[in-house]
Amino acid sequence: MDPKLIKSFHYSLLSTLLAFLLFASLFPSSTSQLSTDFYSLSCPSVELLVKSTVRSAVGSDPTLSGKLLRLLFHDCIVEGCDGSVLVQGNGTERSDPANKSLGGFEVVESAKRLLEVLCPGTVSCADILVMVARDAVEMAGGPSVLVPLGRRDGRVSSSSNVRPNMVDTSFSLGEMAQLFSSKGLSMDDLVILSAHCSAFSERFQQGPKGDLVPVDSSLEKDYAMELVRQCPAGASTTVTVNNDPVTDALFDNQYYRNLLAGKGLFRSDSVLAGDSRTKAKVEAFSESQDGFFASWAESFVRLANISVKTGSEGEIRVSCMSVNDPGE
Length: 328
What we know:
By secondary structure, this protein is mainly alpha-helical. Helices cover about 35% and strands about 5% of the residues. It is built from ten helices and four strands, in the order H-H-H-H-H-E-E-E-H-E-H-H-H-H. The strands form two sheets. It has a two-stranded antiparallel sheet. A two-stranded antiparallel sheet has the order 2-3. A hairpin with a 5-residue loop joins strand 2 and strand 3. Helix 1 runs antiparallel to helix 3, helix 1 packs across helix 4 and helix 3 packs across helix 4. The chain is globular, with a radius of gyration of 19 Å.
């Protein structure tokens, strides 16, 4: 685990949402044109069709729950929730190194292909991505969330927009708060998921015998030794570690209990339990899963409403992987 390796921004399920629930002014957007019954006439079965697609995919690969949620986060945090992260090609958001470990694209595209048969040119990829992420969380044990729909797809996807808008796992609480606030998200909206070994390498240093030694006192001792075991010196950058070492396959409030026990994987996790601005919320969520779920539902809707395109803005893509030809 070379401390000089570039951080990879690789998040997993119960930990992208969780740095997400702790920053409340709303970012200006056209959310007034979104509606929970937007497709009631044009594609009335859209939510059932999307949920069926997600259920089938997650049933075959449970890790998709975390991947789909993270995919939505990476879409919304850059150019707003417009499906721009789904576009393939050189120089797109999807091609940026910060997004190289994203997954779940095939679930969105599968739902899109089905909807293009039944409701052609009607449902946006941006809306599909919101729905699949929402459904994936529910299938992992999370709450059911009613989300307004009516987003349109962006025509621009540029890798140059990614890094200035992405959370780095070594961020201080102030840096995270500033980024989230710029997106209209509050201190109560901060959450992160899982990572590559290189993403938390600054919490260790190489000892005289070549072994890794924890240098961050906020890490619980036994947990630090377990991280060293999973990510020894020289570990490949493709090796990943679950942010939640207890219930990594479930969407629950265990993450907050881990933070209070000194088992936050990233430095950006640990600061949430140690800073007076967020500690009370961490403690409250650790004690009440119902409280966490209620707050999560509100924060998810706020995330999904960041800088949406509606009305005559953007387009409805034929394929989520590419913008439409000008003549379409």
